[in-house]
Structure formats: C-alpha cells, structure tokens
Amino acid sequence: MDYSIVNFLSLLGAVGLFLYGMKVMSEGLQKAAGSRLRSILAAMTKNRWMGMLTGIAITALIQSSSASTVMVVSFVNAGLMSLEQSVSVILGANLGSTFTTWIVTFFGFTVNMGAFLLPILALAVPMLFTKKSKWKSISEFLIGFVFLFMGLGLIGENVPDLSKSPELFAALQDYTTMGFWSLLIFFVFGIIVTLIIQSSAATIAIVLIMSSKGWIPFDMACGIVLGSNVGTTITPLLASLGGNLTAKKAAGVHLVYNLISAAWMLVIFFPFVDMIVWLTKLLHFGDPEQLYAVVHGGGTPGPAMQAATSWGLTVYHTVYNILSLVLMIGFTGVLVKVVNYFLKSENKVDEESQLKYISAGLVGAAELNILQAQKETVVFGERVERMFGMVKSLVHTKIGTEDFENLLERIYKYEEIADRMEIEIANFLNLVMDGRLSFNSKMRISTMLNIVSELESMADSCNNIAKTLVRKYEADAHFDEYNYKNIDRMLKLVSEAMTNLMIILIDMDGASTDDLTRCYDKEREINEFRNHCRTENIENINAKKYPYEAGILYIDIICEAEKLADFMVNIVDNVEDQLRRSTQEEDGTILPELNPEKLASSR
After folding, report:
1. CA atoms of 222 and 275, how far apart (whole Å)
2. Could you say which DSSP state residue 591 is in?
3. Would you give the distance in Å from CA 218 to the centre of its chain?
C-alpha cells in the first residue's frame, strides 16, 4: 500500500476545507438575513407545528443542526421560549439537517461542479469589496459554497484507493460481515467521528465518499449515518454547560430524542435498509448496493453507481428523520417529563444576582445572540428601575430604623449587581463581536455596549442618592416640607422618564419618533426644574429658611436625580443613531435629528 503521511495530512486538510466552507457559507447566510432570523425566532413558537417548521427552515438555512440546536438551547436559557416549545424546534432541526445531505449529493455526485467552482469564485470575490454589507454577506456565502465542494472533491481524491490496497480491503471485510455486531461497530464509529469534528454533515459527507469508493457496504454506511445523528448532540450538550437548568434540559431533550430514534431504528435496521434500497430504485436513483458488489468482485464502478450509493444514503437519512419526527411529535410532553425526572434543581439561587438571558457558554449563531443581549439589556434596565423605586421609598423611610437599613442594604446590593451585569453583558457582546457579523450588527453591538455603560451609571446615581441620605442622617440634617415636595416632584419626573426609556429598550428596533421625542421633552423638563430648584435653594439658604448643610444635601439629591435623566438621554441618543443607520442602510432615508441639544453640539 503506497499511502504516506503526506496523503493522510492531505485528507485531513480536505476535511478541514470542507468544514471551513460550511462554516463560511452558514455565517454568510446568517449575516445576510440576521435581523430576519431574529424576528423569526422571536415569534416562531406559537404551537408545536410552527416550531417544527421553524426548526426545519432555520437548520436548512444555516446548514447545521448543531448550530440551530445550540440556538434553541440558548433561547431556552434566555427565557425566549419554554422547554416545551423548544422540543418541536429541536425535532424540526433534525429533519432540517437532511437538506445539507441533499445539497452535497446533488452537487457533489450528480452535477460536475468542477467546471463551475472557479467561475462562482470569480463572481464572489469582487462582491467582497462592495459597500453594501448584504452583498458582502452573499459573497461570503458563495465563497463558502465553493470551499465546501472543493473540500469534498479533495476528500475523494485523497481517500485511499482500495483497488491498490487489497490488504486494507480484506481488513475492512472482517468488520462488515458480523451481522448486527458490524452494525453496532459502525454505529459507534459514526458517533465517535461526529463527537470529534462536531458536525454530522461533515461525517455524512465523509461517509458518502467512503461508500462511493466501495470501502464499506451500503447498510454499514447507513449505520454510520445513524451514529452521526446521536453524535451531533454533543455540541448542544457542551453549550448548555454554561447555561441554566432549563438550558441543560433542552440539550437533554435533544439527546433523549436522538437516542430513542436510534433505538427503534436499530431494532428494525436491516428490513428498513432493504426498504430504502427498494425506494431508491423506485425513485430511479439506481441501486445503492451495486457499487460495493462491483468493487468486491474486482470491477471498477462508474459515476452512476457512485451517485446511486450517495442518493441511497440521502434517502435513508431523510426517511429515517421524517419517521422519527412523525413518531415523536405527539410525545413532546413525554420527552419533557423524562428530562425533568433526570434533571432536577438541587438548590435555589438568588435570580436577581445572575444574568437571565445570556451565558458565555451559549454563543452559537453570532447574529442571533444579539437578540439575547437585547433582552438582557431590558432586564438590566428593569433592575435599575426597581433600584430607583427603592431610592424613592428610602427618601420617606425613617432614618435609623430597621426598614431603612434593610432598604439601604438592598440598594447597595443592586449597585453591585449592576456592576456585575455591565461587565458580563459587555464580555458577552465582545465575544459575539468576534463572530462574523454584518456591519449593521457590529454597530448594534457598539450601541448596546454604550447602553449597558449608561445603565450602570444610572445605578451609580441611585446609589449616590442613597449615600446622600446616609450623609444627611450622619450630619443630623433635616429637610422641611418644601425640600421633600421638590425632591418628590423631581423623582416623579425621573420616574416618568424611566418609564418612557423602558418602552424604547423593550423594542429598540421599533421605537417610534413619538417615543424618542417624549424622552427628550421629559429630559428638558427635568433640566428646567433642576435649574429652578438650584436658584431657589441659594435664595432660601441666604434667607435662612433652612440650614446651609441641609440645602447642600437637598440640592445634591436634586442634581443627582437630574444626572439620571442625562444618562437616559444618552441611551435614547444611541437608540436613535442605531435606528438612523438601519433605516439608511435599508432604503437610503436619513431620519431627522430629534435631540436639539445633540444637534447643536454637533454643529
């Protein structure tokens, strides 16, 4: 046998090129349709049938059941869908994975792609240098498509030729003639290979090459495909390790579903393969078992025989997943109960102290993780709003009492939570930024980084107001009715501004001009009231209506509350800028500047 280490490394390189092409093709599609994918996933789980169809569509689009299942796990972790809703999406993702097999079989074994790959590359590369990010994304998809089939062709060229390696052929024969034990060996082989390369599509592509070269009989190739369906569960399982219990349960559902599907298939495997052979012939794809018989008999198989074997594996993979889906779609509740039985919560944690929607272990599709970060930002805003509510209560809580100390302790705790949330959300966004993103998505992440920074500053202001009240207690200063009346009015104005801000944060992409204008108007009202209080405070101190120290502490609270409004306007400015960029990219329309102060400063 004349097969050197260089040939083996060339084979590994070909597999690597295939995987890289799949990755670039998938990411190019995600970048081209990122915002649309986010919209689909946000509204896709109305019922199990819609969830199933969405799982099929998303997996067919991004060419990876592992990636789409990781998305589902992370969305369950994020609370964007329930565990029950996720099951049908996961089932659909398994069927969607067959789309890749059809593409590889059609373009790799039926159509001679060699004549088209370089012309496609010639068209794609110039598109990389266009200004439109959408065209760049389409270019990346085409380049990934070319790399994928170049890799597939190189795999075929670097797989050892069995006609020149009779000893290898004889060794393989020993493992293919043991009946059910042979099936188990190749089934486990499929699991192991998929565990290593974390791509069932790549495993199936390798199997297509091996079977088309006559390495293994058709039924054993089907055994490897079956094993790859189980092996593909490793990626979501690894991703779920960084998530909450519900995310682990979603990954567990994926594992249990594939194990049950593989179990019933193993029981009826050989009659089922016979049925697939009959069906492949019926569809006029040819006899998938003929190639191995010809190679085993010393003959040379033709392209038609190779294509027939590949079509047979594709039909097997598709029919198996369709039947599994049909059998299990009615038992999604049972799957959830099984997973709930084995995965139970051991202890309860303080939910306020941890992120609700994102986890560093769940970065799958970069474009779609932005939605998770947006949801987490809303939670951040809600916690700051809750913290501000505590500050309002603290103003009228008797200083020195147990209620005051408990409320103060909660405010300090929320300030620590805000610090931690800012860092963790920013780290997550930076991790997402490392993925292959469209220009608009990168700018969206930049906007969100600014927003979480401003939210943390708002928490600092709340904390500063609480500390000012402590200073008031320590100085034994007292506010009169006038001071409390103005503080209450200022806090009411800020509370109204915060309510307006939360409306915008909840739907940043759909924020209306009225929403934005209302925030700017409220901030101007707060500024005017701050100026009014500041002027009157100097007059009142001079008139000795209250002590100087009380006046200083009083105006510190007023000014710190006004700073909260400034931070809110900074957030609204960022949202407005993002809306302007998105609108301009979509239809070329430039939105008018709504913040007069910002417009004046830019001039």
Report:
1. 13
2. P
3. 37
Q: Which of 532, 508, 504 shows the shortest CA–CA distance to 518?
A: 504
Rounded to an integer, what distance in angstroms lies between the CA atom of residue 570 and that of residue 455? 10
Question: Which residue is listed with tokens 């200063």?
Answer: 477
- What element of type H or E holds 139? helix 133-158
| CA–CA dist 312, 349 (Å, integer) | 51
Other Cβ atoms within 10 Å of 350 Cβ, number: 8
For each successive 10 residues of the chain (603 residues), what is the average pLDDT? 72 82 74 60 60 73 66 66 77 81 75 75 86 78 83 74 53 70 89 82 80 82 90 80 75 89 92 93 88 74 81 91 87 85 61 57 58 84 93 89 90 91 88 74 88 95 93 88 93 94 87 87 93 93 90 94 93 87 58 54 39
User: 3-state secondary structure string, 486-517?
Assistant: HHHHHHHHHHHHHHHHHHHHHCHHHCCHHHHH
CB 75 within 8 A of CB 358: no
CA atoms of 403 and 405, how far apart (whole Å): 6
What pTM was estimated for this model as a whole? 0.63
Q: What is the DSSP string of 425-462?
A: HHHHHHHHHTS---HHHHHHHHHHHHHHHHHHHHHHHH
Helix then strand then coil, in percent of the chain rounded to 5, is 80, 0, 20
Structure tokens at 315: 């039909």
Measure the CA–CA gap between 247 and 361, rounded to whole angstroms: 11
Instruction: For residues 256 and 233, give the distance between their C-alpha atoms in angstroms, rounded to a whole number.
Output: 9
